[in-house]
Amino acid sequence: MELLKDLFSYKDLLKKVKLCSCFQPIVCLRTGRIFAYEALIRGIHPDSKELIFPSDLFALADAQNKTLEFDQICQQSALEYFKEFSVTTDSLLFMNINTSLITPDENVLTELNTMTQKMGFSPAAIGLELIESRAKSSSALTSFVNHQRDTGFLIVVDD
Asked: N or C of the chain: less Cβ packing under 10 Å?
């Protein structure tokens, strides 16, 4: 977080820090084949070009009550980068979903599907990685999982 002290607000972060998604291969142990890539957000400081830890990016967003907005920006980044990357692979995209943000709010439930379709992806090509222990409401998490699964997304339990 030390590196971000000169970025005084979340708005500054979005204007100045380059966000990019990197893809970690997920390999089938039986076949040795890459069947998916997990999207990982990274930030690059505008002046020093140093890597900014994702935890620092999320902490800054959280401190300014922008966690949901930043999570959606990360999802959009993953889809944008994977759109270019996916022309060379038939692998799936796994995206981390911040389960602490899941509420019964219908907009949150449908936003990811809308974004995915606008980017030209089928939900069946996307795995949503969830850490269930971070959810604030088990009923909201169950509703989210059921809705996303019915929409066609794969549900992946992380940890």
From this structure: C
Q: CA 41 to CA 66: how far, in whole Å?
A: 16
Beta strands, E only, the chain: 18-27, 34-44, 51-52, 92-97, 126-130, 154-157
Distance in angstroms (rounded) separating the CA atoms of residues 110 and 142: 15
Residues 6+ apart with CB under 8 A from 107: none
Q: What is the pTM of this model?
A: 0.82
The dihedral region occupied by 145, where left means phi > 0, alpha psi between -120 and 50, and beta the remainder, is alpha
pLDDT by residue (tens digit) across 32-59?
A: 999 999 999 988 887 788 888 888 888 8
Distance of alpha carbon 60 from alpha carbon 153, whole angstroms: 29
Calpha distance 60→89 (Å, rounded): 34
